[in-house]
Every structure is written in structure tokens, then in C-alpha cells.
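> call design_seq(struct)
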């Protein structure tokens, strides 16, 4: 990517400096019903995918976790149960509306004393080197403008023995399923977005952003280039999603 030119926003090409604003507009629009739409669009499967991701984080009591692009806090909430009262989870997101919903959720559940909330850009993390035992990001990396920079930042803030977990949409592996997946993504999802949040364009963007995101092997290579070791991934639901992992030694 040439930072002096353009990058993708779904299938559109936009100036690099403007992508974050466009992505922010998408999530401002959908924040109020984000959880409902996730349940409807995935038939609840996103909850299973997130549980698998947290299981692969191999969390133990007392650890510190940074959840990037954490939104309404699904991954962070699961992580809190694993790290216990002596652990701590930082819920972060670049979008204020999404972060507010996550914070409100934790306050309502009475668990906010174990968590803190930071609005930040995944490409420029405001934390010292080696601050966390684990870094997680769920369905957020594809929205980042410079993924290589974000991966390098994830690597930087992990201490030795740390592990990164990236849960992200990937590319369907079963050829016979691809036409049905495309039909659902580009026809059904925008209709649902129109009916539920009065915003079909945001869900059209989300479908397009999946198609232009690197495939699983490419993303694994990018993690290695960022300095992670023993990188690997697991494909779930015929490759609809992938859980990536990498260690810091």
C-alpha cells in the first residue's frame, strides 16, 4: 500500500487519510443495534467463534489483556472470566460510540472494576512496550488501514511469553458454498441492515471488506513479518472465519 495514494474501503478506493473516517461512520451508524445484527447475521455463531478464540488465548488467572477494536465487549467479557479478580482487561476501540456501549455493558454487569477503557487507534497504541500478556482483536483487523503497522504494534505491547489472537472473517474454502455465501452477503445482509438499522450501505461495506481482506495464509505470513513466532490459524465454518495466533518469545 502506498500511503501517499489510496487504500480500499470495501470495493472503493479512498485516500489513505480518509479511511478511518469512513469506517468510523459505518460503526457510528450501526452501534445501537450492533449486537442484535451480529446475532441475526450469524445465527448466533459469532458467539461460538468468540469462545473458541478466547480458548485459544490460553488465558490464566492474573494476566493482563488488551482487546483491540473491542466494540461492545464480547471478547473482553469472556477474557475477564478467565483472568479473574487479579487480572485486568483493557477494552479499546477507535470508535467512541462502540466503546461507550462496551463500557455501559460492563458497568451494568458490575464488572467494570476489572476493566479499563481506552479509545485508541490500533496502528498507534498508547501503551509501553511489553504491557500485556495477551492481545486480542475480533472482526476488527480488516477495518484497519495499515494492517502491518497494527500487527507490529500488537507485537510491541506484548511481553515475552505473550500471545496474540486475531479472530477475523476469511475466505470460504468450499467452492460449492461460495455462490450462496455471496448471495447472502451482498443481497440478504444489506436488506437486513436496511430493515433493522436503516443503513444498507454499511452492511454492504462489511461484506465487501471481507472480500478484500487477506486470506488466512497471507495474514499468517504478515504476522510472521511483524515478528510473531509459531504463527498458525484454524479455519472455522468452512473458512468463513479464521482464528490466528502468534507468540512473542
Amino acid at each position: 500500500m502506498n500511503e501517499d495514494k489510496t487504500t480500499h474501503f470495501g470495493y472503493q478506493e479512498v485516500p489513505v487519510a480518509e479511511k478511518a473516517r469512513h469506517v468510523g461512520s459505518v460503526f457510528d451508524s450501526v452501534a445501537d443495534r450492533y449486537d442484535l445484527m451480529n446475532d441475526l447475521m450469524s445465527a448466533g455463531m459469532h458467539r461460538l467463534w468468540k469462545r473458541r478464540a478466547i480458548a485459544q488465548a490460553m488465558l490464566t488467572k492474573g494476566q493482563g489483556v488488551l482487546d483491540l477494536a473491542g466494540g461492545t465487549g464480547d471478547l473482553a467479557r469472556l477474557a475477564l472470566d478467565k483472568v479473574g479478580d487479579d487480572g485486568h482487561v483493557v477494552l479499546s476501540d477507535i470508535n467512541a460510540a462502540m466503546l461507550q456501549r462496551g463500557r455501559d455493558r460492563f458497568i451494568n454487569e458490575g464488572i467494570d472494576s476489572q476493566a479499563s477503557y481506552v479509545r485508541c487507534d490500533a496502528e498507534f497504541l498508547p501503551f509501553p512496550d511489553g504491557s500485556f500478556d495477551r492481545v486480542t482483536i475480533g472482526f476488527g483487523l480488516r477495518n484497519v488501514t495499515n494492517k502491518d503497522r497494527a500487527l507490529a504494534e500488537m507485537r510491541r505491547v506484548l511481553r515475552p511469553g505473550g500471545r496474540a489472537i486475531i479472530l477475523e472473517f476469511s475466505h470460504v474454502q468450499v467452492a460449492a458454498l461460495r455462490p450462496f455465501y455471496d448471495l447472502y452477503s451482498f443481497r440478504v445482509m444489506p436488506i437486513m441492515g436496511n430493515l433493522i438499522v436503516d443503513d444498507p450501505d454499511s452492511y454492504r461495506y462489511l461484506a465487501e471488506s471481507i472480500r478484500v481482506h487477506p486470506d488466512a495464509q497471507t495474514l499468517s505470513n504478515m504476522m510472521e513479518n511483524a515478528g510473531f513466532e509459531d504463527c498458525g490459524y484454524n479455519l472455522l465454518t468452512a473458512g468463513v472465519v479464521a482464528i490466528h495466533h502468534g507468540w512473542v518469545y
